[in-house]
Amino acid sequence: MSILDDIHISRRTLLKSGAALGATSLMYPAMSAFAKSESPIKIGLIDPQTGTYAGTGGNEILGAQFAVDEINRKGGVMSRPIQLLIEDSAASVGQSVQKAHKLVNRNKVHFLMGAVSSAVALALAQAAEQMNTLYMDTGGHADAVTGTQCRWNTFRTCSTTWLLTAGDFQTIFDKYGKNWYFITPDYAFGHSLHTDYVAQLKKAGGKELGNALAPLGTTDFSSYLIKAKSANPDALLVLTSGNDQINTLKQATQFGLNKDMGIGGPMMEMEVLEGLPDAARYGYWNMEWYWNQPNTPHVMDFVDRYKKAHNNKVPTARSWFGYASVYALALATEQAKSLDTMKVVKALEGLELPPEIALQPHKTFYRASDHQLIGSEFPGQVKTGGVYPDLFEVADIVDASKIARSAEQKGCSISYPS
Amino acid sequence: MSASPVDKTASAGQDSAPAAPPARRIPALLPAIVIWLLLLSVPFWLPLLGGYTELGTRVLIFGLVAMGLNLLLGFTGGLSFGHAAYFGLGAYGTGLMLKFVTHSTPLAILVGVIVGGLAATVFGPLTVRRRGIYFAMITIAIGQMFYFVSVRWNSLTGGEDGLTGFSRTDVDLGGWILHLQHPMVFYYFTLFFFAIGCAVVWSVLHSPLGHTFIAIRENQKRLRFLGLPIGVYIWIAFAISGFIAALAGSLYALLNNFASPEDLNWVLSGVFVIICVLGGMRTFWGPLMGAVIYVVAQDYLSSITVNWMSFIGAIFILAVLFFPWGLLGFFQGRFQK
Q1: Closest CB from A50, A93, A130 relative to B260
Q2: What pTM was estimated for this model as a whole?
Q3: Which architecture, in CATH terms, is B4-336?
Q4: Nearest Cα residue in chain B from A23
């Protein structure tokens, strides 16, 4: 029960901090660092604060707010403060689209960012394009966002599902074996991960034994796990994320599946590891950013600053998505010297994040051809018996530009409005 | 439009002295005129109150579907928890037409309305054989059936990701072009269809058919003794409300340029019922009033707190406790006493 209690507490703190953040943003005009005449640059942030992605979404918000506070302390962008307007998406597509319309039409935000669910990211990208607004996808991973459905107004900070799967495919294949079974969340993100893994599996001569599609927000995975057990694969690939991933892994452990087969997947997150009991922490996974990089400059400094501001909690990949996305928007705006959507888009194309923001060893930049951030992947192994925050062993920091597919291979050609 | 069916039902419901004619201090047409003037001028005063035009459009759409539902719920006495299905079918019908078949918005609306309305007409007979809680259960079951079809049929509907890739197009009225992408133009476009929906509901309520509906609600057994085919009448009410829900859904898809499986979910059906009850189930304008409260509260509260649903719940409980006839029913009762 203690785990459930933990989740409860962390969620509550999250709500409190959310309320505190909301209050700070309301008080902005009162802050004296800027002349009264300077109207703020508004960023609308749509992220899940409730539902299965509340934990991951909450950290994106914390990271974004952390960046906004830093930028404002340093004098803002074009001598104007940044204001963050946060809306709850509940990982619901309909609600997110509604919030996007509200942020642009009522609050007159200059930029939109956010999303944990890929479905939300795809819908927001379209809604933002229709409103001629720049959208920065912080955490929706499906290839299509910067692939077949790429748009001139849309950029993405987190990896593609291809990068996630390519990051650790070979490790899982070598360590566990060639017969794979998948548990896949039944929406854009899951379908995309599954397609990408299967493509690599076929090429390597492996075999897919089955694929169980679970709706987003499933709490009982037993029927899928029973199917997986009877298929008797070498490896069980868990493609779920957020609370769904916590539930999958807890129940897989109860079923003893980890004794019969190797368990791993494309994406592991600190939020998930924190929510898991020690017995359910195992396997080979991929991280998109990890706080413990002793050899990368600026990282320790960032982690210390962040911990000080957040009750000794280390930044997660999600915090970094929020942090880097806000900085990218700020840098591009400063460079464009304008809030015009097209000018900022042009400034973001090819923008390289400076090392104190990139916080990873390889070159980190928004590729102009498809608007995808190309950085690093952190494949490795979950530490069994690890103590927070030391829960993951990074095996290698992979340069994403070495494994990324080109815009043409992804089916993206951006057409700009005339 | 007058509120006369309301007067009858209010007096019937409250069991007041049947002989005395209802005293009218306010002319019957006045509320309708005020409401229409307010609706016509929304784009001019709503921004001054901190709103935005699309909020007004959303109120109209939810008001429209609730009015349609109210024909069944408030006037015929059938509690449906499945109307989101017809709303969502309207949305998907319109979205799919615009995405794959045509660039004509009116044609897409027409198809959406027919798809949703026909579904209600076809599945209506299954529900009308039962009353009360069983009626509600069957409507939920049928609604969820459509919901799961939309979630599972990935190749057509986009599954849980929702349907993207279409947008409302300009309408050419013989040389005069309606630029629907403009929020204000789309508001009046929606208002036009809202007016059609109102006209349909109003004329039904003022016809013998509407009186039969009310009679069914008041005393079903007596009507059965009189030899009326009650099931057929409830079916007709179900079908009409289904067509109106589909029209609203079709407009909703155009508003967001997007349709999602949540548009068919029973949760949304529950929202429609809440809107009817909040505003006043037995009044003509009650559902619109309920839509104003629900949509505006949701819009404002959800920016302030993630627990906005608790506030909606509290409002609902207070309304049921203190205004069992809904807000509008309460105020009308006041005026008529």
Answers
A1: A93
A2: 0.82
A3: Orthogonal Bundle (1.10)
A4: B304
